[in-house]
Design brief:
Distance between the termini: 69 Å
Number of domains: 2
Oligomer: single chain
Structural class: mainly alpha
Order of helices and strands: HHHH
Number of strands: 0
Helix content: over 70%
Amino acid sequence: MNSKEEQTNSEITNLENESLIKQQNDPDCIKEQIGDNKLDEKSIEIKDQYKFGWSSYSEITNGRFAMIGFLAIILIELFSRESFLKWAGIL
């Protein structure tokens, strides 16, 4: 890099830093950020609550266990070199 490119890059970085500092000192921006954090905390609380029956939490959990089971069957077939049903003694 030549010195002109380095100087231009440093000027851009300085301008970005100045705009970030101005934004952080702006009281409206701070209030907006605090409001966003409260919303995020509420949504996290709602998502983590377990409900009995058909809920999105149950569906996600069942889906994850199904993926683990399917992967286990594939790995068993790869390592044993025979079908899962034959390996399990079903056929």
